[in-house]
Amino acid sequence: MNILVTGASGQLGSEIKELSLNYTGSKFFFEDSKGLDITNAAFVDDYIEKNKINGVINCAGYTAVDKAEEALEEAKKVNIFGVENLVNSIKSRGGKLIHISTDYVFNGESFLPYKEEDNIAPLGVYGSTKRRGEEIVESSSIEAIVIRTSWVYSAYGNNFVKTMMKLGNERESLGVIYDQIGTPTYARDLAKVCLHIISLDRKIDRDSKIYHFSNEGVASWYDFAKAIMEFGNISCSVTPIESKDYKTLAKRPHYSVLNKQKIKNDFNIEVPYWRDSLKKCILNINKEK
After folding, report:
1. Active-site residue 178, yes or no?
2. For 76-127, how does the pLDDT look when each residue is reduced to its tens digit (9 = 90+)?
3. Among the four residues 34, 223, 267, 289, which has the most C-beta atoms within 10 Å?
4. Catalytic site residue from 126, 186, 222, 255
5. pLDDT of 287
């Protein structure tokens, strides 16, 4: 296969790039927005045709949750029109597409882990534009799936883990929200899933094209931060605070734990526990220092 990975300089794209070195029989093309503007339909068509692309892992997205509230058109360009361009272009080559989406398509009012078919009710621009991108993939006739994920972190890029480690080494104490519940996702674990699925000989199309993936277990941001200090051997104390005491432009879902049974059953995937994956990531971060 000739596999295009968009958003290649981000957390997930960078992890896929590193892991792809172990994949023989496929040629990978890694592009960020500078090398491939997915919002330009003609450019996307030309790139996919010229490089004979027959597989796409779309990691690109407008992911600045708060900024999106004031930049609707920019978010729409990437999260909706960019997805549409990739779907249309890969359709002409009969290829596969894996599109990455988010837990922000839910409003967080559940008390049970969200299943793929549960009610969609985004709280802001980011979630609503990502949902529209999902609908484009769902309604297409191509061999494609959407993978929703949550709380992504990595040794690459900017993320909660690296921010907490930096602040923890600079300060004696930090206040972190305890009333938002979800599951951290190590981008490397998600990258392995994406590579496994796109490399399958059999078709990946299903009656429902939506899947959920995060690590196993449940945590608050407070729990997450406490674990980061523990595994990073950082002495900074962490204090729980409520969401109302940390104002943001965009509303966050208070509960966004994802049920992963479907992806485990359909693709024979084992999902690591979030604390185990976090420990591995922090080891990788510290190695790079």
Report:
1. no
2. 999 999 999 999 999 988 899 999 999 999 999 999 999 999 999 999 999 9
3. 223
4. 126
5. 86
DSSP assignment letter at 218: -
Q: How far apart are CA 197 and CA 176, in angstroms?
A: 36
Characterize the bridge pairing of strands 143-149 and 237-241.
unpaired
| Domains in the chain, CATH or no CATH each | 2-157+185-217+255-272 (3.40.50.720)
8 Å CB contact between 33 and 76: no
Amino acid, res. 156: Y
Residue 130: closest CA among 250, 271, 20: 250
**How deeply is 78 buried, as exposed, middle or buried, from its count of CB atoms within 10 A (0-12, 13-18, 19+)?**
buried
Q: Which residues contact 100 (CB under 8 A, 6 or more apart)?
A: 12, 57, 58, 59, 61, 146, 147, 149, 190, 194
Q: Transcribe 139-198 into DSSP letters.
A: HSSSEEEEEEE-SEE-SSSS-HHHHHHHHHHH-SEEEEE-S-EE--EEHHHHHHHHHHHH
The closest of 181, 145, 184 to 262, measured between CA atoms, is 145
Name the DSSP class of 34.
T
Q: What does the pLDDT read at residue 289?
A: 66
152-153/96-102 β-pairing: unpaired
3-state secondary structure of 18: helix
Residue 33: count other Cβ atoms within 10 Å of its Cβ: 16
Rounded percentage of the chain residues whose pLDDT exceeds 90: 90
In this structure, are residues 174 and 103 in contact, taking their beta carbons and an 8 Å threshold? Answer: no
pLDDT for res 221: 98
Among candidate residues 146, 271, 122, the one with its CA nearest the CA of residue 206: 146
**pLDDT single digits (tens) 10-47:** 999 999 999 999 888 899 999 999 999 999 999 999 99
The answer to whether residue 187 scores a pLDDT higher than 70 is: yes
